[in-house]
Amino acid sequence: MNKDFAARRRSSLVWRLALLSVLGLMISMPFVWMVSASFKPRVEVEQPQIVPLHATSHNYPIVLNLQEDPVQKKKLDLHFGRWYFNSVFMAFGTTLLQVLTSALAAYAFARIKWRGRDQVFMLYLATMMIPGVVLMIPNFQAMVSLSFINTYHGLIIPAAFSAFGTFLLRQFMMSVSPALDEAATIDGANHWQIFWDVVMPLARPGLIALTVMTFLGSYQSFFWPLIMLNDAQMFPMSVGMLSLDTSYGQQTELIMAATVMNVAPLIIVFTIFQKYLVSGLQLGGVKG
What we know:
Blueprint: H1 2-38, H2 59-63, H3 80-111, H4 117-126, H5 132-145, H6 152-156, H7 163-174, H8 178-186, H9 191-202, H10 204-219, H11 223-228, H12 237-240, E1 245-246, E2 249-250, H13 252-286
Antiparallel strand pairs: 1-2
Helix pairs in contact: 1-13, 3-7, 3-10, 7-10, 7-13, 10-13
């Protein structure tokens, strides 16, 4: 009986591994093709083979303005280094502000008792149901009124508040024993000290998860920078790469080379913080 059970278990495990392997291959194929296409000359880029027949690394220096584009017979008017900086700066700024405001709001909703607290929280959470497109015009008009067009302020400040981030951190903070607050209060601590010295260290998994998700989302932001910016020097990578779609046609090999360099920081960040992201979301989903 035990042998039959062990055999069925091994068979089930083999099938699960096979299914996961197939799914993993399907998911990874677009990335593999992107990397492959970035090393192809233009005449090969539309061909289906994964391994380039005549591999070349020239696409990368062309994108970086270190070499002339053989199609246009000149260096491209790209500001790759500046766009890289803009993307990283925007992501860091948005992440810093969003994590800070979410943590402060979560503390107020989880640890401080005041009339109407839960009702206000539910109202704040309900804003997640409003499509972002609906708020696009009012937000843009507000940025125009504040003279924030073509500025980092206009890219970062509208994204500085997050109902989801507040919800996630509130779940962690609600799991912290109220006895810790009472003990800290007896020792003379105020709310600010309790927030920084007691609650925040215990909410670290949620903070890391929110930080990683916010950074990844902000780094890839496209539509808001597209309507907020008209100065090429201010473009993030996501918008700047549109410059590769020129009157000479869509230069796919250059777009793929730029995309590989663009996603490299995302892959590095996700690889380093993957376990913290998963564990943080799992803990946040069961607490509270």
